[in-house]
Amino acid sequence: MLESLPAIVAAAVSAGAAAGLKDTATQVVADAYRKLKTMIAHRYPAVDLAPVEERPASLPRRAVLAEELEDAGVLDDAELFSAAQELIAIVRAHEASVGAAVSVDLERIQADALRIGQIESTGTGVRVVDGTIDGAIEIVNVRAGRQDPPDPPAARR
Questions:
Q1: Mean pLDDT of successive 10-residue segments in the chain (157 residues)?
Q2: How many Å apart are CA 33 and CA 95, to the nearest integer?
Q3: Any residues with CB less than 8 A from the CB of 23 and at least 6 apart, and which?
Q4: Residues 68 and 9 in one domain
């Protein structure tokens, strides 16, 4: 399963927030992030970016943001998708250590079919460049990088 538009936008917000936390963040990264945030704030005012901005590496927070974006109706927003893709590309180009949190990075591959599912990553879990695969590609159950627990642990009695 490919990532949904809300998940891509949530990943872009996470990447932009993480890059913005670094002292080395460039103006072009800051501008692209501000553009995406402004677009979300004006079009989807009920969507709260603060939890992801506070902890950009948190996968549970990013998942909640993706759900909120989907509930707000972003699925047909091509302009928002374009702004998210632009931000991800800029972060990759200017803040390589932040842009590495891409989960699955496929570039110039050939295969009969592609199936992706159950990816949890704070870094690149799978990267394939210039690959030709006979048959189908199946990438599932990938866990890479530091994982935040989904909920705080319960106290023992």
A1: 73 83 73 94 96 89 93 92 89 65 64 67 65 76 60 51
A2: 13
A3: none
A4: yes
- Hey, what amino acid is at 67? E
Model confidence, pTM: 0.59
C-alpha distances (whole Å) from 46 to each of 41, 76, 77 are 8, 17, 16
Residue type, 102: V
Q: Point out the domain boundary residue: 64, 83, 98.
A: 98
Number of domains in the chain: 2
Question: What is the H or E stretch that residue 27 is in?
Answer: helix 27-43
Q: Helices 27-43 and 5-21, interaxial angle, to 10°?
A: 140
The answer to whether residues 93 and 123 belong to one domain is no
